[in-house]
Amino acid sequence: MSLINRILSMCESYAYMRPIIINNVIDHLKYGATGELLCHNIRNEWLYSNVTSRDESVFQFCNIDQKKYSNDIPSLKDHFMNAKQFCNNQLPFSFADSRSICEQTSLNALKIGDKKYFSPKNYTRFKYIAFCIPEESQQFFYHWQRQRKIWWRKFSANPGRFSLTEILIDENGQESTEIRAEFPWGQETIETIRNISTKMFDNLDPLEQEMFIARVGKRKVLPHVVESETSLEKAFMVFLCDGYADLPYHSGRREIFRFHRKLAPYKITFAAPLSNAKKADELRQLSIYLGLNLKKSGISTLILPNTAKKSLESQFTDLDCLGIPYTAILSDSTLDNGIVGIRNIETTLEEKIHVANLTSYVEQLIKNY
């Protein structure tokens, strides 16, 4: 079985996603319960990087008619006027879109082989459009390339797989570069960054162009545009394939997903060694109590009914396939002295803490990047 097929098999078994094929083309990715959480976390981290933590003002928009437009200018007029008002007509400011549903219109865009899973016909785009001060647009183009590459590397189990292509200049003088990820089946183009300058306004009539004029100090200028675009589906597949590992374990091997703790669908869960019915029920009740405390603190926690009803190794196999970075291991002694083990998916080593400190300890673990 090929690597991508092993990953897809795990995805279906553990409710990540399955590709929906119509007329021999992958129409879209259908997400399961675990996949929905992963999508939610990817979108949140993209918005944090592209909106929340930016120096300039970034306004969100969603173009529900994206399938009808070849560029965003027709749908950005009202948003642009509002942004100018908020920013007192002054550049720079930006827009971000993480919800528009788009359709691949070119047959060339529908990849073949293993690459097809990264580019379904229908996808949710992640697009950032910066309206720059003309004199600063070139420098921002270089800066934004670096920032986007850093973002992908930050969440990767193998940061070295990401690279930037050389800058290409088309017949219209538009500069572009791509971020690519290296996989066993070849390179995937996962994001494109373009320096459009003022070319996206060229097809507008003079009155429409006037709407997009802003100020730098007292000077009126037409903004220079830098944009970057990827998709939720690309990011989802990149982090799944990046996080997949087939590792030696005891006398055999184990398949796992290693997600960055910010992206992991669940941050922590519970496990306990096989026990008699009475002890198993007590440990399950303790896991529910501790799990609810974690959930109240905003920590995504998976509480399973089979705690202490299966062998530890069997529980670990399932939890590792779900990509859960930490497992709280309860035991008979936990009921006596309150000590719980925290198992790390990366090292499989345990750290002992008291249950009273569990929530605060896990908060610290997942707080930082």
Automatic annotation (TrEMBL):
The protein's superkingdom reads Eukaryota
Gene Ontology CC terms = mitochondrion
> What InterPro entries does its record include?
aa-tRNA-synth_II/BPL/LPL, Anticodon-bd, Anticodon-bd_dom_sf, Gly-tRNA_synthase/POLG2
What are the residue boundaries of the Anticodon-binding domain, all occurrences included? 277-364
Q: Which GO terms describe its biological process?
A: mitochondrial DNA replication
Q: Which Pfam families does the UniProt record give?
A: HGTP_anticodon
The protein's name: DNA polymerase subunit gamma-2, mitochondrial isoform X1
